[in-house]
Design brief:
This protein has a single domain, classed as P-loop containing nucleotide triphosphate hydrolases (Rossmann fold, 3-Layer(aba) Sandwich). Strand 5 and strand 6 form a beta hairpin. By secondary structure, it is an alpha/beta fold. The strands form 2 sheets. A 5-stranded parallel β-sheet has the order 2-7-1-8-9, with helices on both faces. It binds guanosine-5'-monophosphate. The site of guanosine-5'-monophosphate (5GP) has 14 residues, from strand 5, strand 6 and helix 4. Guanosine-5'-monophosphate binds next to strand 5, strand 6 and helix 4.
């Protein structure tokens, strides 16, 4: 049961929580998924959502798709690390999956909105690293959403409006990447992740290692 787990901010192991936000269409999902596939120690948190699957989305890969009563029952039993309403749908990060990833010694990447990133960073300030991805221009964002051809014009307009709200919170983040060129943005995201991983406080083996060096 989720309640039996320690919470991330109560554990001694310092797994890194990489919180990645952006307006829809800025490339966050592709960047995040590639970072996770290139780093064996980094795992993606799969959220629960009450929104309907889009064409091509699979249960358990993009999201776990649940109905509102199911989602509300999970809230009631304290099963989410954070949850938020986005565009009329509920989205939440299941606590148990994050805790087992941390228990296995992994870092966790969260592809979540500013509300979720804020909640997690407040609960686990020392372990959270927040990255915001910006599009190079508004026109580019709109073009990318249209190119996906996944949504109707009305839905695209809603997503663009929501994108403005998301961008308005960019100052809450530790790092901002402008995704003008995917490879460049991907390299920048990788640099952020690897640098943050090298902070002494995140490597509990270091004091003993250094003691060993000094004892030679
Ligand atoms: P979409 O419906 O386009 O997949 O996602 C809409 C927004 O919800 C995106 O900004 C996405 O990052 C965010 N989101 C996805 N999962 C979660 C979650 O578990 N918690 C929060 N707070 N936001 C989420």
């Amino acid at each position: 049961m989720t309640d039996d787990h320690a919470k991330p901010w109560e554990t001694t192991r310092r797994g890194l929580l990489l919180l990645v936000s952006s307006p829809a269409g800025a490339g966050k999902t592709s960047l995040s998924r590639r970072l996770v596939s290139d780093h064996a120690d980094l795992t993606l948190s799969i959220s629960w959502t009450t929104r309907a699957p889009r064409p091509g989305e699979e249960e358990g890969r993009e999201y776990f798709f649940v109905d509102r009563p199911g989602f509300e029952a999970m809230i009631a039993k304290g099963g989410f690390l954070e949850w938020a309403e986005v565009n009329g749908n509920l989205y939440g990060t299941p606590m148990a999956a994050v805790m087992s990833a941390l228990d296995e010694g992994k870092d966790v990447l969260f592809d979540i909105d500013w509300q979720g990133a804020k909640q997690i960073a407040e609960k686990a300030p020392d372990d959270s690293v927040r990255v915001f991805i910006l599009p190079p221009s508004w026109e580019d964002l709109s073009r990318r959403l249209h190119a996906r051809a996944q949504d109707s014009e009305e839905v695209i307009n809603q997503r663009l409006a929501l994108g403005k709200e998301e961008i308005a919170h960019w100052r809450l983040y530790d790092y901002v990447i402008v995704n003008k060129n995917f490879d460049r943005a991907y390299a920048d995201l990788g640099h952020i992740y690897r640098s943050e991983r090298m902070k002494p406080g995140r490597n509990s083996w270091l004091p003993e290692f250094v003691d060993g060096l000094l004892a030679e």
